[in-house]
Amino acid sequence: MQQLVDLFGFLSVVLRAGTLVFQSLLLGGIVFVLWIARDMPGNPESIEKMQSGSWTLLRCSTIGLIVMQGLYLYVNSAVLMTTAEIGFRAVLGANFFLSGSIVLAAAVAAYLVARQQWKVAHWLLPVLAMTVLGASVMTNHAASRLDGRPLLIILTTIHEAATAFWIGGLPFLVLALFRDKEEEARWHITERFSRVALVSVGAIVFSGMGMSIRYIASWRAVLGTAYGVMVTAKVLMLAALMLLGGINFWLLRSTSKDRVMPRLRRLIEVEVGIGITVILTAASLTSQPPAVDQPNDTVTFHQIMQRMKPTLPRLTYPQVADASISASGREATVSDVPNKLPVAYNADGEPLPPQRIAWAMESESNHHWMGLVVLAMGLLALLARTGKAGWAEYWPLLLVGIAIFIFVQADTECWPVGAKGFWACWANPEAFQHRLAALVCVAFAVFELRVRRRKWENDRMALIFPLMVATGGVVLLTHSHAITNVKENLLVELTHVSMGLLAAFASWARWLELRLPVGDRKIPSWIWPVCFALIGVGLLNYREV
Amino acid sequence: MLLTLLLLTGLSHLAWAHAILMESTPKLHATVTGPDVPIRLRFNVRVDGSRSRLHLLAPDGSLQALPLARQSTPDVLQSQATGLKPGAYKLKWSVLASDGHMSSGDVSFTVK
Cα–Cα distance between A151 and A142 in angstroms, integer? Predict the structure, then answer.
């Protein structure tokens, strides 16, 4: 039962993230169809086609929001009914249920009225957008605070609205640029959008700083708490978005229309990708207690340096008498396993029990092996990039090595290293998932190798690699928020978040390499292998004690 | 990517929550005088008192639901455990924060 509750708890976070993404699309879409894409100069037929596409995407966004919000209400209600042992009638009055129902009703109404020809849509959609925004803020950190609540609610509202107008509007811009082939209309629409984006960025920075002052409160907590680390990751991704936005802004004003559009579309695609990553990170942040509430669980800079200082990777595994420990029915003490394990300490300098040390050493060795492979992949990709080593193009084959590693090491109780047979282990859900991951690695190695060797760069299949890496980055940035053993989990999370950021940058750099005009690919083609190599270095220095 | 896949497999072991316990009466690992023990838990955020629960795990393994008093402030839950015999107890709490997140935890204490 507890596992089911945990799984539903995780699902509710995922669904909340999805809700936030579609909410941003709905709000950004409404601004786009009602203000940005209206009264465009150019061929009426072409403009009509572009506008109808935007309205269709808006309706799709409302459907997405309806589905996500409905599922979120169902899952969160189920968790509450199980944990609090209450009936559905009692759930109805809960704050999250009320606000979620309002969002759901507003999204259904938005779907029904989102028709280009209907005059009512032009005044009702902004009202519905404000309703969705207001109800959403009701379930944010700001709503549950005791001090400074009104100010925090205002700042949160500005932050969510500005994010939606900018990032939520980007997919509409990409679609419009795709559907409207007229340079004049494309130019106008991009210029109008860039003005909205500029104001939004200012609002995001202003409100974000205000909230950070209240929720983080000290410089020490910026890197010393999970909340601070997540905000830092968001700031770095925002900086990347601002850089891309700045390039777009400069291109629009300094390059001729026929030359700017092919580049602009690709850069905006990457803005969409990083923007959605930022929204998902923000959604994950809402399930995290603000740093200011964890003064006793803040990790010091010294503790971070202690954990992060470079050490030699460990590629061997500890030999611990697990059987004797479990047979005694208690946790082992140092005297149980003399001279077998080194003495190790937690973040506060307290000695750890042997079993915990053994687990940490095993996990570290796994990470170090993985780091070796990822570093090799990055270096080989760099070598291939120089154009002087064609054989280095075969670097995807290293993924097969990873698959073998998972198969052998992830489930040590199974064949070929453990006592359990090959087929018997398929019934174990964890082993099943590990084997599935191994198969995905093999399939991906074969696939990416074919893409690289056949130079399918213009093929859509080539985009699967950056999309997979981007998905990995999102999971790394959002996966772990433990409220127990806070300091230790934060030190682990620091590594995961930095690798998540590198994965996000690597994926979108590779995307640009594939999508930009041939003459503009130089810089991104160097960025992603370097990011890969840095992820490998991070893994090689990963430590848990 | 691989690390991601492996992380996903371990997700069920993590706690996803927002409300955290800031202070409690009795304090964690405290020894208190019985048989009646007042209970007060203060959280970092507003909690929904009518949808939160307190249970007491007795030394003999029995689990007893504790009635919650009316909330004096939105971040506090209060109750009273009565007729406690000497021994080690565990107060188990699960709360719904007003932002919709649920969390749970426990406070161990001893009655002398």
Answer: 9
DSSP-derived secondary structure for A313-360: ---S-----HHHHHHTTS---GGGSTTTS---B-TTSPBPPHHHHHHH
DSSP 8-state assignment for residue A484: S
Read off the pTM. 0.83
* Residue A88 contacts B where some CB pair is shorter than 8 Å: no
Give the distance from residue B94's alpha carbon to the nearest chain A alpha carbon, in angstroms.
7
Residues A17, A280 contacting (CB under 8 angstroms): yes
Do residue A144 and residue B22 have CB atoms under 8 angstroms apart? no
Interface pTM (ipTM) of the complex?
0.80
Tens digit of each residue's pLDDT (9 = 90 or more) over A110-161: 999 999 888 888 999 999 999 999 999 988 888 888 888 899 999 999 999 9
- What is the β-pairing status of strands B87-96 and B76-81? unpaired
Closest in A94, A139, A437 to B48, CB measured: A94
Contact predicate A189/A47, CB 8 Å: no
Contacts of residue A79 in chain B, CB cutoff 8 Å?
A: 102
List, for residues A234-277, the tens digit of each pLDDT value: 999 999 999 998 888 888 777 776 777 778 888 989 999 999 99
Q: Is the preceding omega at residue B74 within 30 degrees of 0, hence cis?
A: no
* SS3 call for A236: helix
